[in-house]
């Protein structure tokens, strides 16, 4: 009888060490009151609206990400907030019994996203709700175009692969969550410089952590990137960038 074939490991798209470093940098930068935090503010408002619409009043919540505390602040009951990168998302979570798990851009750079969603379901109490928000497909089109202009004929992998609505719904079903819903909303932000756009991404922990990313931009490539960015400016000298916020929601079935 042939030996069973062990399950294959998920592809290592993201570098865990780079991801941890980026998240630690985000936590440090968020100590500055001037740091960008508009994505987390939007997420806090959206979370409050969703649980209000669903009439779900969690007594005990787990919040992953959320370095500003904005999401935790809108939740009733006891909140277990994990803003720092010390939580192994792609391994079984040593937690359970939560009425709500809110992942705030915490799953964007997990190599085993299907596995992380299964762990999230296991962390929920029966009848508990998962709300996981990621940067969805269609985010950062300006930055993508600028990086292509900077790299010229040899484009390098610089931005993360992103999940779209259809794939998100399939991931929820695969994780065994009931009543799975994937939806996306757009948020536009105007920037006066490429440097400010990159700074805002660093503030919010959304810079590149690919395992096989491109080499750092040299001065000539950076100059091309800044020129391409300036070429997209409107009459006010600003460029409008788009963030697409993809939210995956589903329930753990009652016992």
Instruction: Give the helix tally.
Output: 8
CATH superfamily: Vaccinia Virus protein VP39
Largest sheet, spatial ordering of strands: 2-1-3-4-6-5
Number of strands: 6
The low-pLDDT segments are 1-6
- From the N-terminal CA to the C-terminal CA, the straight-line distance is 38 Å
InterPro entries: Malonyl-ACP_OMT, SAM-dependent_MTases_sf
GO molecular function: methyltransferase activity
Protein name: Methyltransferase
Keywords: Methyltransferase, Transferase
Protein architecture, described:
Keywords: Methyltransferase, Transferase. One of its GO terms (molecular function) is methyltransferase activity. This is Methyltransferase. This protein has 255 residues and is an alpha/beta fold. The protein has a single domain (16-251), classed as Rossmann fold (3-Layer(aba) Sandwich). The chain has helices at residues 16-29, 38-54, 70-73, 113-123, 141-151, 165-174, 194-203, 219-230; strands at 60-65, 78-82, 98-104, 124-135, 178-191, 239-251. The chain has a six-stranded mixed sheet with strand order 2-1-3-4-6-5, sandwiched between helices. The longest helix is centred in the first third of the chain and has 17 residues, at 38-54. It is globular, with a radius of gyration of 19 Å. The chain starts with 15 loop residues before the first helix and ends with a strand. Mean pLDDT is 91; it is low at 1-6.
